[in-house]
Amino acid sequence: RAERLDVINRISLAVSSTLDLDQILQTAAREIAKVFDVKQTGIILFDPDLSYGRVAAEFQETPDQTGSGVRIPLADNPSLQRVLATKQPLAITDARRDPLTATIRDVVEMRNIESILIVPLVFKGEVIGTIGLDAIDSPRVFTSDEIELAETIANQVVVAIENAQLFEREQGTIEELRQAQQRLLQSEKLATIGQMAAGIAHE
């Protein structure tokens, strides 16, 4: 129990130590791989209308860039549709033969995945993405304790994502206000110059 709390605290600190979204996701992918002793993890973020997911971050013990920036359709994707519907983790022991991975078999084979644990990132009751833990080379049965821990970590990641996005929105608003202020000052300068020119012409 103490070890589990230590893991949760460590990942929470790691992902909340920055407000840079890419860095948060990359740190989460790396730390999750370490905690669960898997050689590959990927974090997918869904687009707002849930038509596809984008691989936003990944960790590979032996990097091959097979996941970087890949877009995964959600339609006709039984495994992700199941996660979207249930908002619960999905453990697939035989990813190469399970019907739930039938439409992504090419990705499974390209990334050498034997077993996979897909954990939803749930924000305000909506699934905004998933964390995938890939067992490669040999199959793995994820235990209920591991699945529960992965869910807890996913919740920490969601909080960090929301903080980063909130910060981005605030920075955008500040930048818009700064630009509006610049435009106002510019128009006031032009008005002053116009008045001065009119005064000189009058004289």
What keyword list fits this structure?
single chain; 6 strands; alpha+beta; 203 residues
How widely separated are the two ends?
Answer: 87 Å
Class inferred from helices and paired strands: alpha+beta
**Which descriptor suits the 3D outline?**
elongated
Beta-strand residue fraction: 15-25%
Biggest sheet layout: 6 strands, antiparallel
* Number of distinct helices: 5
The string of secondary-structure elements, in order, is HHEEEHEHEEH
Question: What does the radius of gyration come to?
Answer: 24 Å
Q: Estimate the helix proportion, in percent.
A: 40-55%
- The number of strands is 6
Low-pLDDT stretches: none
How confident overall, as mean pLDDT? 85
Arrangement of strands in the largest sheet: 3-2-1-6-5-4
Notes on the protein architecture:
This protein has helices at residues 2-16, 21-36, 78-86, 105-110, 144-202, and strands spanning 40-46, 52-60, 71-73, 90-92, 113-123, 126-136. It has 203 residues and is α+β, with helices and mostly antiparallel strands. A six-stranded antiparallel β-sheet has the order 3-2-1-6-5-4, sandwiched between helices.
